Amino acid sequence: MGEAGRPEAAGVTVREALRWASSFFRGQVERPQRAAEMLLCGAGGWRREELFAEPEMPLTREQWAVFQEWVRRHRDGEPLQYILGEVSFYDMTFTVNRHVLIPRPETELLVEETLREVKAGWNAERPLRMADIGTGSGVIAITLARLHPRWEVWAVDCSAAALAVARENARRLGMEGQIHWLEGDFCQPLKEQGVWVDLLISNPPYVARSDLAALPAGVRDYEPRLALDGGEDGLDAYRRIIRDLPSVLLPGALVAFEVGIHQADEVCRMLKTAGFADCKARADLAGIPRFVFARWV
Q1: Residue 1 confidence (pLDDT)
Q2: Which key words tag this protein in UniProt (predicted)?
Q3: Is 231 flagged in the annotation as binding?
Q4: Cα–Cα distance for residue pair 94/165, rounded to 1 Å
Q5: Which stretches within 122-263 are classed as H helix?
Q6: Yes or no: is domain 90-296 CATH 3.40.50.150?
Q7: What letter does residue 178 receive in the DSSP assignment?
Q8: Any residues with CB less than 8 A from the CB of 99 and at least 6 apart, and which?
Q9: What pLDDT score does 164 carry?
């Protein structure tokens, strides 16, 4: 055995690698065994069930070296998704890197709740024109384009690097030709292109600047600040988007926002003040209002 109980390179088995990594993680990361399994699957190109079926399977020297490096990176705080370079969203696998926010389960719920609102408000056969503002890795735009191939989908981000990730995800998933990509600030590119939409959906930055330092290290130190920083009170992005909505929304259009904790009431108030109707908040699985919907009349 090497230092700190680390097995020597020659003949390290799946069982030994997992035991070492789990011990190395203990007290440092959440769910150490699960993290070790995910990293070993990535380093070895295996499925999780193969680890359990063949615990005495030996790692190659290259697999063992990559696994050790990844284990140390995760112990030091780097999110698993960035190390592995991918994340699951709506039963699809998306590429992610440090240019884009890691998609959360709440955003899957945003898609589900938005589809429920669309079903209630439009004929299911009618193709819609929609925009995803602040698309990041493209998970919202690509998911909706896949679920509704007749929709006209526009995706906007101010980061060229994020758009490159989103476009690569669309290409890998066979969706690039169904999505129009625009670089620019929130609604501005839609205004410049003269695009009017039936649905505008956005998960914008909503962390108050004073709260950034208190975020978990894996978020604060690795995820793009541009996708987190919502200004002094966390609501700057909503103000800027809402200000421009009358210039891009068709009559009867639906607006769908993901919001931070304790922000739903204020975002609803801003929408009502701007002339929107039927404003409502919906809760996430923890019962916290995290999604706001409104209609343009």
Answers
A1: 42
A2: Methyltransferase, S-adenosyl-L-methionine, Transferase
A3: no
A4: 9
A5: 139-147, 160-172, 188-193, 217-220, 236-244
A6: yes
A7: G
A8: 159, 161, 162, 164, 165, 224
A9: 98
Domain boundaries, the chain: 3-76, 90-296
Q: What tokens does 110 get?
A: 């945003």
Comparing 115 with 6, which gets the higher pLDDT? 115
**Are the C-beta atoms of 152 and 127 separated by less than 8 Å?**
yes
Is 135 among the annotated ligand-binding positions? yes
Structure tokens at 57: 């399977």
Number of residues that make up the chain: 297
Residue 138 marked in a binding site: yes
Q: Is there a binding annotation on residue 55?
A: no
Distance CA 270, CA 243 (A): 9
Q: What is the pLDDT of residues 20-74, one digit of tens each?
A: 999 999 988 989 999 999 999 999 999 999 999 999 999 999 999 999 999 999 9
134 is in an annotated binding site: yes
Pick the CATH number of 3-76 from 1.10.287, 1.10.3470, 1.10.8, 1.10.150: 1.10.8
- Chain segment 92-133, per-residue pLDDT in tens: 999 999 999 999 999 999 999 999 999 998 876 788 999 999
DSSP secondary structure letters along 186-220: TTHHHHHHT--EEEEEE----B-GGGGGGS-HHHH
204 is in an annotated binding site: yes
